[in-house]
Amino acid sequence: MLEGCVPYPAAFRDRYVGEGYWRRETIAQAAEAAAAAWPQAPAIVDSRATLTYAGLIEESRRYAAVLVENGINAGDRIVIQIPNRSEFAILALACFRLGVVPVMALPALRRAELEYMVGLARARALAIAPEHRGFDHAGLARELALSCPSLKCVFSVSAAAGCIDLGASRARSSSAGAAGPDPFDVALFLLSGGTTGLPKLIPRTHADYLYNAREAAKVCALERGDRILLALPIEHNFPLACPGLVGALLCGATAVLAETTRAAELAATIEREKVTHLPCVPTLAINLLELSESERRQLRSLRVITAGGQRLQEPTARALKSAFPSLSVQQVFGMAEGLLCYTRLDDPDDVACTTQGRPMSPLDEIRIVDSEGNDVVDGQVGELWCRGPYTIRGYFSAADRNAEAFTADGFYRTGDLVRRAPSGNLVVEGRLKDLINRGGEKISAEEVESHLMSHPTVSAAAVVAMRDPTLGERACAYVTLRAGANLSLDEVRRFLESRGLARFKWPERLEVVDAMPLTNVGKIRKTDLRRDIEARLAAEQRAADAPASPHSAHGRP
User: Fold this and answer.
1) What's the rounded Cα separation, in Å, for the pair 372 and 255?
2) Are strands 77-81 and 125-128 parallel, antiparallel or unpaired?
3) What residue segments make up the domains of the chain, in order of their start?
4) Does the CA dihedral 194-196-200-202 come out positive or negative?
5) Are residues 159 and 129 in contact, defined by beta-carbon separation less than 8 angstroms?
6) Which architecture does CATH list for 53-181?
């Protein structure tokens, strides 16, 4: 096991292998087996090209040669920040082939997060698209190359100053890495939700991640010849392997990659590519419901929508079933650390619309416990703990956090509050974590607060979730200021941009208060702030709903 990672205990590993849950193969070996079975089947489709299974493997071998030529070898780490393009899949497979460990970084991340990740992983390389959605990733990469001592080279999917152009390289397909790394060693790092500041690195092994993807494909009925549309950032666990890209490649399906989440554009893609499966967050599901009648007809090839990232509210689930009668609406609740719960495609509507599913694997072990760690009775709300053949035993190089997040017998304390419904499925009721869930993107309040506290006019800061009908939650920042100071939301955003914080983490509302509500021990009482923002939002809604003044139409006071 890679140094800094916590291995599965031998008894558990032997059981998972002995009972066939884990196989003695790497992700690259599994993909090559699929290519041998269906060489000319389409594997990857993006806005630029289509790659067959054979073509994908050939290109991944060429990328592997480029990595080796530039000194990147087994055990090295590479931060990958490529949007939903075929080059992501090619490079990821090249890494899996060599035993290079990719760190999956979202394209939305900026300097603050990337410097931290490169340093923590001791990454030797970074891979980017030079520009994405108007941001100069190549320029940021050049800055990182100067500020991060471990970083030796930057790879790019196209020409950019200071970068190694993967597309223009003349390297030939290589047999390097043909023997493959150890299937039970770390294949990749995912990012945690970042509930205690900056995200932790989640080590996933070849064996557990292959099982994760295969089993998810079964539960979602993703099969050979199907086409799954991946519009969510592909470095997320959900579109990567639940079942996502990896699951598609294992079963002979096609992964259609999209760089947009605009519902109208996705509808056109679904019709053009005859997409059968769509993993999405509830925000996107709501946007699909708002399509025109003609645009909705473009979705007729869809068989399964799997909604995750945050709880799909019952009215939205029922509206989807009503709007698209032939469509199976499936919920998934899970985490990059492992456990996945799905509603099944044959669950009754009342179960599918009101619960977030049950564990995917028969070897998933879950406990729902009270604040003392005692199991609660069915129907009672408690914290979810889990253990199983694809749930990690510890974060990378995070001994202190591991002591908090994992029990002595290996259960992961998720921080999610759930109850078990009479159907046996779980219902997500909230979380212990101080986290804002913005349309499926998890924002650590503590991380944003640490940046706000660096502003010269801010004396205290607290970030809380405020409800939003589209995204579920947005971030609201409460601040107290130093004497005589003023601060606007625009100034806050410019400040956070200058500090390199990802845009989606910026507060979308600012409340300047004279003093923070405090507990007896001097901690900010966030429950009071959450109640306050709820009251403010309710008052604003009442004002908006109030009948207009008879003079207002004429613009008179």
Assistant:
1) 45
2) parallel
3) 53-181, 435-545
4) negative
5) no
6) 3-Layer(aba) Sandwich (3.40)
* CA distance linking residue 381 with residue 379, whole number of Å: 7
pLDDT of residue 395: 98
Cα end-to-end span (Å), the chain: 72
If you search the block for the tokens 């205990």, which residue do you land on? 9
Fill in the amino acid letter for 320.
L
Q: Write the single-letter amino acid at 46.
A: D
The CB density around residue 23, as the number of other CB atoms within 10 Å, is 16
Residues in the chain: 557
Q: Which fold has domain 435-545?
A: GMP Synthetase; Chain A, domain 3 (3.30.300)
Which are the contacts of 483, defined by CB distance < 8 A and separation ≥ 6? none
pLDDT in tens, 416-466: 989 999 999 999 987 777 789 899 888 888 789 989 989 999 988 999 999
Closest to 289 in 3D by CA, of 259, 327, 346: 327
Task: Please tell me the distance from the alpha carbon of residue 273 to that of residue 97, in angstroms, as a whole number.
Answer: 29
In the chain, which stretches have pLDDT less than 50? 552-557
Give pLDDT tens digits for 96-126. Answer: 999 999 999 999 999 999 999 999 999 999 9
For residue 195, what pLDDT is reported?
53
Helices (H), 477-522: 489-498
Which CA distances in Å does 95 have to 82, 206, 387, 535?
14, 12, 28, 51
Question: Tokens for 5?
Answer: 């990672």
Q: What is the pTM of this model?
A: 0.87
Backbone angles phi, psi at 471, to 5 degrees: -90, -5
User: Quick check: 356 and 404 in contact, CB under 8 A?
Assistant: no
The alpha-carbon radius of gyration of the chain (Å, integer) is 24
Alpha carbons 469 and 462: distance in angstroms, whole number: 22
Q: What Å distances lie between residue 392 and 6, 102, 103, 105, 414, CA to CA?
A: 8, 17, 16, 19, 12
SS3 assignment, position 138: helix
Tokens 């974060």 correspond to 395
In sequence order, the 6+-apart residues with CB closer than 8 A to the CB of 3 are none
Cβ(208)–Cβ(57) under 8 Å? no
